[in-house]
Amino acid sequence: MIQQVTRGIKISVQTSFEGTFYKNYKMHYAFGYKITIENQGKDSVQLTYRHWRIKDSLSKTEHVDGEGVIGKKPVLKPGERHSYQSGCLLTSPFGNMSGHYTMVNFTTTKQFNVVIPTFKLSAPFALN
To answer: Whole domain around residue 97: which residue ranges?
Structure first.
């Protein structure tokens, strides 16, 4: 498990390899990830936006931006956590993801970014 704390917000990431399949005459590797966001600070916050950098070892880096996570903009009071699961497809058995969440602090009304630590995606059969 990969973890990182930014401004009192702890991000934990667990990954899994889900399998392979062909799409458009190309082999694709499916990966899943579970993210837990925990508010270890003293103020309530809301996740409003996400930015991902998805690096495939055989192709260029892809950037994905959007509101919230899986259709939600969770509010986290001090001590609360929010978990969700998602996934991505790569064209190689290796890659990584990283990025940030944009949060709003309800006490100060200011936005801030929370780092999503870089996590590796690797198919177990491809490891040496």
So the answer is: 2-126
- Specify the number of domains making up the chain: 1
Q: Which residues contact 84 (CB under 8 A, 6 or more apart)?
A: 34, 35, 69, 70, 72
Question: For the segment 78-112, what is each residue's pLDDT rounded down to a tens digit?
Answer: 999 999 999 999 999 999 999 999 999 999 999 99
CATH number of the domain where residue 33 is located: 2.60.40.1470
pTM score, two decimals?
A: 0.92
Measure the CA–CA gap between 121 and 34, rounded to whole angstroms. 12
SS3 21: strand
Return d(Cα 10, Cα 123) in angstroms, integer: 26
